[in-house]
């Protein structure tokens, strides 16, 4: 008998720095979400699409759960919690090295219990746990709190057990159509992907006090042919920060930091767009933009 096609929306939720974006990118096989060893890397809900022979899964990478300190932070939390109730399956990601259920994870568990959705507990970073007994104790701790649909230990960095995770999700999806073309891997526009990539490089390279006071805006994306008939894309973008002193750090001595951000971003963009990229980045100050309603609304749930 022919296997029926399944589809559905899958929300990825967890505290900051548990590796949600790394998991999403590994599952999709493309970079759709910024990854950095910083808190609050993901700011809005990003959709990533995994197409299999008998299913289509639309993953939603949500902002990490954290203590809000600005209008932007509150918007991020609203986005994350909204996607617990409005999906077919919830993926709750926790850190394998944790030994207790902290405040952030407890808050997520509360929301999951309220929604009463099919939830798969994903324990990431198992490669960092040497003692199997510790892992089993952590699983037992969480299973006492909620009747999870499944528990899947993984290592996103080493790409261990990712196929098992996809199998488990597919098993619990309902019969349905493909919502997106099978060639697509995200619903983000090229401009949004450009912004994610530039911001990711800035997050990785900048000092701790700077990254979360920045946002990136793409001003121009234009494809053209060179005189030699080669494809090239002209991209112009602006990095906005909250202080003049931060602007100096982002630009760096003799412009070296901005050059590094631009070089790493261009390399990723050329892989993504499969052509040469001419990238120009500017840096401007926009004080207290994190509490500016007109800017923060861009990060609201769409």
Mean pLDDT: 82
What is the percentage of strand-forming residues? 15-25%
Radius of gyration, taken over Cα atoms and rounded to an integer in Å: 20 Å
State the secondary-structure class: alpha/beta
CATH fold-type name of the largest domain: Rossmann fold
What does this structure look like?
The chain is α/β, with parallel strands linked by helices. The chain has two domains: 6-175, 3-Layer(aba) Sandwich (Rossmann fold); 190-299, GMP Synthetase, Chain A, domain 3, CATH 3.30.300.20. Helix content is 35%, strand content 25%. It has helices at residues 20-28, 71-85, 103-115, 132-143, 162-171, 190-205, 244-251, 256-273, 293-296; strands at 6-14, 46-52, 55-61, 89-95, 118-124, 150-153, 174-175, 215-225, 231-241, 276-285. Strands 1, 2, 3, 4, 5, 6 and 7 form a seven-stranded mixed sheet that branches. It has a three-stranded mixed sheet with strand order 8-9-10. Strand 8 and strand 9 (231-241) form a beta hairpin. Residues 34-44 have low confidence and may be disordered.
């Amino acid at each position: 008998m022919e296997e029926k096609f399944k589809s559905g929306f899958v929300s990825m939720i967890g505290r900051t720095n548990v590796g949600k974006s790394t998991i999403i990118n590994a599952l999709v096989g493309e970079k759709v979400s910024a990854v950095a060893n910083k808190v609050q890397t993901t700011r809005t809900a990003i959709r990533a699409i995994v197409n299999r022979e008998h299913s289509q899964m639309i993953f939603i990478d949500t902002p990490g759960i954290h203590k809000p300190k600005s209008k932007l932070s509150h918007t991020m939390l609203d986005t994350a919690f909204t996607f617990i109730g409005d999906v077919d399956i919830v993926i709750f990601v926790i850190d394998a090295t944790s030994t207790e259920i902290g405040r952030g994870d407890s808050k997520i568990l509360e929301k999951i219990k309220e929604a009463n959705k099919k939830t798969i507990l994903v324990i990431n970073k198992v490669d960092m746990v040497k003692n199997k007994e510790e892992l089993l104790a952590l699983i037992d701790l969480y299973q006492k709190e909620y009747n999870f649909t499944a528990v899947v230990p993984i290592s996103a960095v080493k790409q261990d057990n990712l196929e098992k995770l996809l199998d488990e999700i597919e098993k619990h999806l309902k019969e349905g159509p493909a919502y997106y073309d099978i060639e697509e891997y995200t619903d983000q526009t090229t401009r949004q992907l450009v912004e994610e990539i530039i911001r990711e490089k800035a997050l990785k390279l900048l000092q701790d006090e700077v990254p979360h006071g920045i946002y990136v805006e793409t001003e121009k994306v234009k494809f053209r042919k060179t005189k030699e008939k080669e494809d090239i894309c002209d991209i112009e973008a602006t990095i906005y920060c909250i202080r003049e002193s931060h602007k100096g750090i982002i630009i760096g001595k003799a412009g070296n930091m901005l050059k590094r951000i631009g070089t790493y971003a261009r390399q990723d963009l050329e892989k993504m767009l499969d052509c040469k990229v001419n990238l120009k980045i500017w840096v401007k100050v926009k004080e207290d933009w994190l509490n500016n309603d007109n800017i923060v609304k861009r990060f609201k749930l769409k």
